[in-house]
Amino acid sequence: MPKAETSPVESVDRALLLLLLMRERGPVSVKTAAEHLAVAPSTAHRLLSALAFRGFVSQDRERRYRLGPALMDRSMEPFSISRLREYARGPLLELHSRLGETVQLMVLRGGNIQFIDGVESESSLRVGMRIGDQMPAFVSAGGKAILAQLSNAELEELYRNGLPAWPTSRITTMAMLKRSMTKVRRAEFGTNFEETEQGVSGVGVSIGDVTGRPVAAVTVATPSIRFRRVDMAVHVAALRQAAASIEERIAQASR
């Protein structure tokens, strides 16, 4: 009988099989990876750690592994800034109509967030839009929602040179950032109570692509004098609906 075909370098073959698995199924746990390869969890963990070291995979907030930045072809991403604005425009208008406050779309730029679109409130007392502006992600409700989707290792890499200073920030150390992100992960939304600037309160949720990678966030910003904690649930529900609509548009474009 002919011998079964085997790879000349077994460890390389196993690593490639894991990448194919993630491309097919999305994020996988160490246990799933071990079962797929029929190896011990410790062996699967070593392979995944080696892939993560070179950026071929990264961990999500549930410590599962997904395809990393080294394998992302930027020219083929369906959510370029212009496309992302296109996917989000309808949901942003609906969100604005529902809440009556300024709503904004943002993306991560290094350790900052950048505002790329929005709809401004028509109230005489309102939060102005910041299209094109950047600020540290950890002071923004939407930025926190995005950062919470990253692992602690990814946060450390993102801010490897330390957290940038911001006049109204309440997060000043990596330890404080990690603790804050743990709370945001549990809540599944971010908040900003006069952390971006005095007089502004905000709530934000992240937007993911088909693999679960965070690609943007949507927020509602309210003058603090008008913001009521009892309205939080309404804001969160509306934001989640808007995020789900944008994610569905991203998914459709990826098919």
TrEMBL record:
<dbReference type="InterPro" id="IPR005471">
    <property type="entry name" value="Tscrpt_reg_IclR_N"/>
</dbReference>
<dbReference type="Pfam" id="PF09339">
    <property type="entry name" value="HTH_IclR"/>
</dbReference>
<feature type="domain" description="HTH iclR-type">
    <location>
        <begin position="9"/>
        <end position="69"/>
    </location>
</feature>
<keyword id="KW-0238">DNA-binding</keyword>
<dbReference type="InterPro" id="IPR050707">
    <property type="entry name" value="HTH_MetabolicPath_Reg"/>
</dbReference>
<protein>
    <submittedName>
        <fullName>IclR family transcriptional regulator</fullName>
    </submittedName>
</protein>
<dbReference type="Pfam" id="PF01614">
    <property type="entry name" value="IclR_C"/>
</dbReference>
<keyword id="KW-0804">Transcription</keyword>
<keyword id="KW-0805">Transcription regulation</keyword>
<dbReference type="InterPro" id="IPR036388">
    <property type="entry name" value="WH-like_DNA-bd_sf"/>
</dbReference>
<dbReference type="InterPro" id="IPR014757">
    <property type="entry name" value="Tscrpt_reg_IclR_C"/>
</dbReference>
<feature type="domain" description="IclR-ED">
    <location>
        <begin position="63"/>
        <end position="252"/>
    </location>
</feature>
<dbReference type="InterPro" id="IPR029016">
    <property type="entry name" value="GAF-like_dom_sf"/>
</dbReference>
<dbReference type="InterPro" id="IPR036390">
    <property type="entry name" value="WH_DNA-bd_sf"/>
</dbReference>
